[in-house]
Automatic annotation (TrEMBL):
Domain 6-phosphogluconate dehydrogenase NADP-binding: 4-157
Keywords: Oxidoreductase
Pfam families: NAD_binding_2 (PF03446), RedAm-like_C (PF21761)
The protein's name in its UniProt record: NAD(P)-dependent oxidoreductase
Gene3D superfamilies: N-(1-d-carboxylethyl)-l-norvaline Dehydrogenase, domain 2 (1.10.1040.10), NAD(P)-binding Rossmann-like Domain (3.40.50.720)
Domain (NADPH-dependent reductive aminase-like C-terminal): residue spans on this chain: 161-285
GO molecular function: NADP binding; oxidoreductase activity
Lineage, highest ranks first: Bacteria, Pseudomonadati, Pseudomonadota, Betaproteobacteria, Burkholderiales
């Protein structure tokens, strides 16, 4: 027996294995066994199949490409039965519905759904965030072990889909900001400005940008969109400048066009004198 078993040795799985084995005895299994090679000369056990990996430890972590891959692995004969009495931590990325389906398919297994807000090189740090949902009792049983991979555990409650919902909402924020950042890079490039000076400046002012996001979130929570410091019409004016500058400099305008389409819908909905957060009213309209 080992302390923990890990199924999946992609870049994230390998990082998890490295963080875990410094404190815990570890069994691993991966569809392509060769990926375990760098781990084996340091005391990690390679199981011959997924069932043997599940049988080897009281806590089982799964981190594969998606829930379909995980489902194929956990549906192998005997695996679901072997999971009873153990804690399964699903760390593959998916939707809230994926988590609910997975949990239902494994009915009776102590199941936690987790989302790592990190790249593989950030695993093992005390500040690395891990969103977790599911039974609190199951989390208590393996919390120190999970803290070895991500020290900043955010428990999102019992509903199993919560961690995936928080994860996708956070990723939406990140990739949305990144898309805007990349268009910002093109603006800098079109004017011969240094890209890394721009990215460093964004990093430095990110707390101020975070404050702005928090303020819009509070407004949506309160349903209060009036008396804006900066109205939708003012913000849409900046959107129009992105479009104009892209045309003037011959840049790809997909980001400005996407943003301006949202502003136009908001203005057409009569939100010109409301704050930016009022855009949520447009997004709430059924597609
Ligand atoms: N990398 C990141 O920055 C990051 C960050 C947060 C979360 N995640 C999540 O972590 C999970 C793993 O990501 P990753 O970066 O390690 O790489 P990945 O390419 O998403 O996943 C690779 C792993 O999935 C396995 N796999 C894929 N299809 C399979 C199938 N049909 N049956 C069995 N195993 C299968 C691979 O096995 P083989 O080796 O045999 O191909 C390998 O173990 C993903 O859900 C990802 O979204 C990743």
């Amino acid at each position: 027996m080992t302390d923990v078993s890990l199924i999946g040795l992609g870049p994230m799985g390998i990082a998890l294995a490295r963080a875990l084995r410094s404190k815990y005895t570890l069994t691993v299994w991966n569809r392509t066994a060769g990926r375990a090679e760098p781990l084996l000369n340091q005391g990690t056990v390679l199981a011959p199949n997924a069932l043997a990996a599940v049988q080897a430890s009281p806590v089982v972590l799964v981190c594969v490409a998606d829930y379909a891959a995980s489902r194929a692995i956990l549906a192998a004969p005997g695996v679901a039965d072997a999971l009873r009495g153990k804690v399964l931590v699903q760390l593959s990325t998916g939707t809230p519905q994926d988590a609910r389906d997975d949990w239902a398919a494994l009915g009776g297994v102590a199941y936690l759904d987790g989302a790592l807000l990190a790249t593989p090189s950030q695993i093992g740090r005390p500040d690395t965030p891990l969103f977790i949902s599911g039974e609190e009792r199951a989390l208590a049983a393996c919390r120190p072990l999970l803290e070895a991979v991500a020290g900043n555990i955010q428990y999102m409650g019992e509903p199993i889909g919560n961690a995936a919902a928080w994860d996708l909402a956070t990723l939406s924020c990140m990739f949305g900001a990144m898309s805007g950042f990349f268009h910002g890079v093109r603006i800098c490039e079109s004017e011969g400005l240094k890209v890394n000076a721009f990215s460093q400046m964004i990093g430095a002012i990110s707390p101020v940008l975070g404050e702005m996001i928090s303020a819009e979130g509070e407004a949506i929570h309160a349903g209060s969109y009036g008396e804006p410091e900066s109205s939708m019409a003012t913000c849409a004016g900046s959107g129009r400048l992105f479009v104009k500058q892209a045309r003037e400099a011959g840049l790809d305008a997909s980001f400005p066009d996407f943003l301006m389409a949202l502003f136009d819908r908001s203005l057409n909905a009569g939100l010109a004198n409301e704050r930016l957060a009022a855009m949520i009213k447009v997004l709430r309209q059924a597609a």
